[in-house]
Amino acid sequence: MKASSAQLTVTTHQGDVIGGWADDAADIRVFRGIPYASPPVGNRRWQPPHSPDRFSGIFDATQFGPACPQPTGTEQFVWSRDHFNVAEDCLYLNIWSGGKADSRPVMVWFHGGAHTAGKAHDAIFDGTEL
């Protein structure tokens, strides 16, 4: 039985965020594409990160953010063998949690790719099984 959207909404320092179900039967929520810093573009390029702005309204965290710029195509590295959205504005988190995970340890993981390939939203990196 799916729970209400209220169970998919959490409050962060930036404001309220709504996510989706990674596995509603197992009560696992997923929040995709949450910015953890302001976009590193324009005069912020190559500068230390700045805190992200507060959300106006409820932030929709049901879609992955763009990957960092890199070559794509079938001849590329295994993690970049499809076409996907890339942008310099690519500082986003994807978070999976159990429905009752209000105060539990977390694991932080960064995908590889040697700054030439990779994206956090590949199926191989789905956090549902963890």
Structure description:
- 14% of the residues are buried.
- The strands form 2 sheets. This protein has a 3-stranded mixed beta sheet with strand order 1-2-5, with no helix packed on it. Strands 3-4-6 form a 3-stranded antiparallel beta sheet, with no helix packed on it.
- The chain has no helices and 6 strands.
- It has 130 residues and is mostly beta strands.
- Helices cover 0% and strands 22% of the residues.
- The mean pLDDT is 80.
- A hairpin with a 4-residue loop joins strand 3 and strand 4.
Descriptive tags:
130 residues, three-stranded mixed sheet, 6 strands, globular
User: Unreliable stretches, pLDDT < 50, 5 or more residues?
Assistant: none
Question: Average pLDDT value?
Answer: 80
Spatial strand sequence of the major β-sheet? 1-2-5
- Estimated share of beta-strand residues: 15-25%
State the helix count: 0
SSE run = EEEEEE
Structural class: mainly beta
Silhouette: globular
Annotation, overall tally of beta strands:
6
The description of the largest β-sheet is: 3 strands, mixed
Instruction: Quote the distance from N terminus to C terminus.
Output: 22 Å
Output the radius of gyration: 16 Å
